[in-house]
User: Fold this.
Amino acid sequence: MATHTTSALTTAFIEGADVFAKQVLGWDIRNAGIEVRTNVKAPQALTKLTADGSPRPYRITEDYNGVTWADRILTVYQAKYDMQLDPEDLRNKYLATLPGAPFEQFSVQQGAKQFLDAITRSSLGAGVRNASGTAAADLWDGFLTIIAAEITATNVTPVATGAITSANAVTKVEQLSDACDQVMHQQGFNIYCSYDIVNKYRIHYRSLNGYGFNKSESGGYQLDGVNARLVPQAWMGTSQRLIATLPNNLVFGTDIDGISFHPTPYLNYLKVRQLMAGGCQIKDIDANVFKVNDQA
Assistant:
């Protein structure tokens, strides 16, 4: 039974206290160009239409073409976070005398923030679906897991950048960018990476140019002379993977846009279950809209 743990509190006499919450990652994947689909109650097909054939020189003979349909399936799975808050655990502690005690709302709000933090750190990127698991990494297959599986299945051919260091990061990122199709260069694309990669890129950029690599006026880390930007993502952890793709090609599905709360007063304490369904998918892995490097 989990409730208030107070063993780390001082037992000395105090006069007042400043209560604050642990700092966590924000939930901002929409701003990173990831499509968030809500109301996904059942597996959802992401279906692509391609016209067959190509134009040809005129002749009176009819040469009919058709179309080809293909899909990738977005499946979401339910995730939960349970809390039990018993105010009796605060008895004879200075917390019981503070405004806001017994801190039920504050505790639930912080639980929700850390719920999303755990999903960001452990589920969106390297998560591997395990229905019998006990951790955030078990909720669903993350983007990095999906990419690794597609490379193994030879559906995606990675660009062989080799290891990325602070002495070659600019060169390696540009190698991936140069390998991207004209469609991506015309429309503009994102290169998702870890903060570790951005730090290496910044160091190498400064050594090559004598000045720092900073955000552009548009607020992104724009590549020089390329219609692309580096987009560091916390969900990539320390991964050395580079993911170049069009905005909204990475998809996160959920049933509602956020966490649902289910509080239940029980005897003299509070039980709370927080729920959020989620799942990741990539709409299109064709080489004209999607490129990755060979580092995991």
Remarks:
- Helices lie at 104-123, 143-152, 169-178, 182-187, 195-209.
- Residues 30-52+67-292 form one domain.
